[in-house]
Amino acid sequence: MTSRHPQPSSDTARLVEENLLSLAQLRDMVGSLSPDIYQQAFGEYGRHTLGKHVRHIIDHYDALLDGLDRGEEFIDYEHRRRDAVLEQWPQHAASHLAGLETRLTSMVSGPAPDALTLGYPMDDTRLSLASSLERELAFLTSHSIHHMAIIALLAEQAGIHLPESFGVHPSTLRHWQRTSVKQALSSRRSA
């Protein structure tokens, strides 16, 4: 059984917020798509669809959150659900994303695990790597943004317009904001 702190750290809350922002962007985009566009195959071998990338993101959140719900310290991203319905029907995926947002939000006020172990396959063996909830939340943000950047490229090919911030890591958005503020201050000083 996982030993638990009474409250998650402020770092956990900040990392949850980053994940929530990414998931909300994704949910908004997915909720506006038709099944035809969502399932449209891209690439030389037709392996890429918007839906497959969305499902892949969802699978990773489910792997972490389901493990935590069961009180497990061991996180295994390799053995994911891979629910084909999530990659075929955008409204189902959007609903699932909203549920993930609710589950993540509840983490901020609920108990948090002291430590986690990540299972990582290596050829014929499996490594057990020390981790934490904060580290896994940071991973999920980066992993989601990576796939959202691919989704943005596929969406562009399908003629779908997305906001400039879609698929951009929060650290890059913060950099853009700092740069914009610095440029505005600089232009005021020179005026």
Keywords:
three-stranded mixed beta sheet; Four Helix Bundle (Hemerythrin (Met), subunit A); 191 residues; 5 strands; Putative damage-inducible protein DinB; DinB/YfiT-like; 7 helices; disordered N terminus; globular; mainly alpha; two-stranded antiparallel sheet
How would you characterize the overall build of this protein?
This is Putative damage-inducible protein DinB. InterPro entries: DinB/YfiT-like. With 191 residues, this protein is mostly helical. It has a single domain, classed as Four Helix Bundle (Hemerythrin (Met), subunit A) (Up-down Bundle). It is 61% helix and 11% strand. It has seven helices and five strands. The chain has helices at residues 10-31, 35-39, 50-69, 84-88, 90-107, 133-157, 170-190, and strands spanning 4-5, 74-76, 112-113, 116-122, 125-131. The strands form two sheets. A three-stranded mixed beta sheet has the order 2-4-5. Strands 1-3 form a two-stranded antiparallel sheet. α1 packs antiparallel against α5, α1 packs parallel to α6 and α3 (50-69) packs antiparallel against α6. The chain is globular and about 60 Å long. The N and C termini lie far apart (63 Å). Residues 1-6 have low confidence and may be disordered.
